[in-house]
Predict the 3D structure of the following.
Amino acid sequence: DVKVTQSSRYLVKRTGEKVFLECVQDMDHENMFWYRQDPGLGLRLIYFSYDVKMKEKGDIPEGYSVSREKKERFSLILESASTNQTSMYLCASSREGRRYEQYFGPGTRLTVT
Amino acid sequence: AQSVTQLDSQVPVFEEAPVELRCNYSSSVSVYLFWYVQYPNQGLQLLLKYLSGSTLVKGINGFEAEFNKSQTSFHLRKPSVHISDTAEYFCAVSGRINEKLTFGTGTRLTIIP
């Protein structure tokens, strides 16, 4: 069974803290994605990685960075968390040539106070 | 650029009644179309996809969708819903060349016993 796992289901951080969200996939997929999900706004792409150490900005990259040192792992970093980054964060992966067919993790609900 | 419109943010339906969730898209290029489902406290999973061929597409759990190019629509239907269909449903569109996936804002389907 294919799997995308995220390090935490719930996370509470203070404003200004550095936050790491981790995602691991076991499907040997080339592509990995980070989205945020907000009520009424659907899913918005933050960053996309198509290979180790390769990344592209998505629609809302401001305030975020990413790291992909190994094929199976994709990290989202909030350098200095702010309250407007309180959201559900979803990680996904897909194989090369099938970018649109994505497998999602269960999500991390981040609250910044 | 491409976009997806899901006009209904919430749809309540009685158990065993039929349901239609509406989706319209806009794109200047040829597209692939998808429906993803998010069950409570889970990530998204692919319900069905239209890539080419027959405009009527069947997916998991008895759902189907019809691609209508002239009306730029891809509505999701099920003839008889069950309590287990309670979830949020996202329509998504991808360009055939760049394959960037754009999601709609979602429709929350509530089944009334």
The interface with chain A takes residues 9, 32, 34, 41-46, 49, 90, 92, 94, 99-101, 103-106 of chain B (CB under 8 Å). Chain B has one domain: 2-112. The CA atoms of residues 31 and 98 of chain B lie 10 Å apart.
